[in-house]
Structure formats: C-alpha cells, structure tokens
Task: inverse folding
C-alpha cells in the first residue's frame, strides 16, 4: 500500500514514521509513505499558502491553488482510492474504517492548518473527510499520522504475530481483556490463576468474560450498537 501525505510540516511527521511498527512496515516494503511539502507547489511569492478568509474574521485559510497543484501533480502518477482530508467535522475514525482503508492500494491524505482549507478543494477533490475525535488540534499532521498508524499495522505481514491485530480492542466490537506478564507475583499482587493453568478453553472463556465485563463497564455503547 502507498500513502501520500500533503503537509506544511513534513519534518514534524518524520519521526513517527521512522520508528516501531510503521518503520518495520516501510522497511519490509509493505507500506510506502511519501510526504509532500505544500510550499513546493505554491505559485505565490515567499511560499505563501494561506490567506485571510472572505467575509472577515480571525484565522487564515489554506488557499486552493497550491493544494490543487499538489493534488493534480500527484494524480499524474497515482490513481488514488481515496483523497482524505483530516478535519474535526469529518466522519469519526473507527476501527472498521481503518480496516476498510487498509484494503486500498493508494491513499492521499491532506493535513490542514489554520482555520482549515478552502471549501472548494473539499467539494471538488476530497472524497473522504475523517476526524480523529471531538477536539481541535492545531494541524492535520498528528491526525494523518494516527490514521496512517491505524491502517499500517493492519497490513498483512506488518505485525509479527498475524493474529494480534485481530485480538485488539474494537475488532470484534468489544474491548480487550486485561493482560499480564512475568512475574506471576509482583509486590504480592498475583496474576489470575486461570492464566497460569495451561487450560486453554478455560483461559479463552476467562478472557471473553473479562472483555465483556470491561466493555459493559466502560463502553456499554459498543454492546448496544452490536
Ligand atoms: N476551524 C476548524 C479547525 C481547524 S484546526 C474547525 O473548527 O473545524 C486545523 C487543522 O487541524 C484542520 O484543518 C485539520 O486538518 C486538523 N485537525 C484539527 N483537529 C482535528 C481532528 N480532531 N481530526 C482531524 N483533523 C483535525
């Protein structure tokens, strides 16, 4: 899979892409991520990419022309399955959405800044708008990285243990059960006996029960939806 990201701050995005699972995905050739600096595409002087908003009011708006030049130049080389704009008024990112996007071949993600991007780009180029939650961040870089991570870890072969992404929270509509590792006793606090029993059906049953209990306590809405 290939993900192109249009940003004003490519340097900000490099480190998360160069560590841990995303790094491994890229090194294995399972995920290619390319960052594109919007300023390289502006026809305006001094790398200008934003301007005052029509109608007045505080806050700059990212201009259409640099964005469209960048998108169209990338489209010459790629046929994007989706052109995604990260925005707080988009569809809320959920595991199911990440699952679906992980099946695509080429994605283009736009990270906004200031008050956002000129509405005409959203109308005429963007095919999907995604929010990472009901709060406002200063730029779309962190949201674009969140989306890239959520997708990247699902690509077959990226996670060492093939099944581990499937047993994460939300994958089957519930939260994950508690997990423990060595030692079996720490400061007098013991790991539940069943986990040490070697009785795998009993362990499975315990995990399912704990997962349901946790979901009922913390996220009853997930059970209602299911
Ligand atoms: N004026 C806009 C917020 C702009 S925040 C509004 O009220 O809706 C600046 C940029 O940060 C946005 O263009 C977007 O790309 C990004 N951003 C901020 N919060 C976000 C969120 N919750 N999800 C996705 N992107 C977000």
Result:
């Amino acid at each position: 899979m290939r993900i192109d990201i249009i940003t004003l701050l490519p340097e900000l995005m490099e480190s998360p892409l160069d560590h841990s699972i995303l790094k491994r995905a890229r090194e294995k050739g399972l995920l290619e991520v390319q960052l594109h600096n919007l300023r390289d595409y502006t026809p305006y002087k001094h790398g200008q990419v934003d301007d005052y908003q029509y109608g007045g009011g505080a806050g700059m708006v990212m201009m259409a022309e640099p964005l469209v030049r960048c998108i169209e130049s990338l489209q010459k080389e790629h046929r994007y399955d989706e052109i995604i704009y990260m925005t707080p008024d988009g569809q809320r990112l959920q595991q199911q959405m990440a699952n679906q996007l992980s099946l695509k071949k080429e994605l283009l993600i736009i990270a906004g800044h200031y008050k956002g991007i000129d509405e005409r780009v959203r109308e005429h180029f963007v095919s999907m708008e995604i929010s990472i939650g009901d709060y406002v961040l200063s730029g779309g870089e962190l949201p674009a990285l969140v989306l890239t991570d959520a997708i990247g870890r699902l690509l077959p072969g990226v996670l060492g243990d093939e099944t581990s992404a499937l047993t994460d929270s939300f994958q089957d509509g519930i939260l994950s059960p508690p997990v423990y590792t060595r030692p079996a006793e720490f400061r007098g606090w013991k790991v539940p006996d069943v986990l040490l029993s070697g009785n795998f059906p009993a362990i499975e049953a315990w995990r399912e029960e704990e997962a349901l209990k946790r979901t009922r306590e913390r996220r009853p809405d997930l059970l209602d939806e299911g």
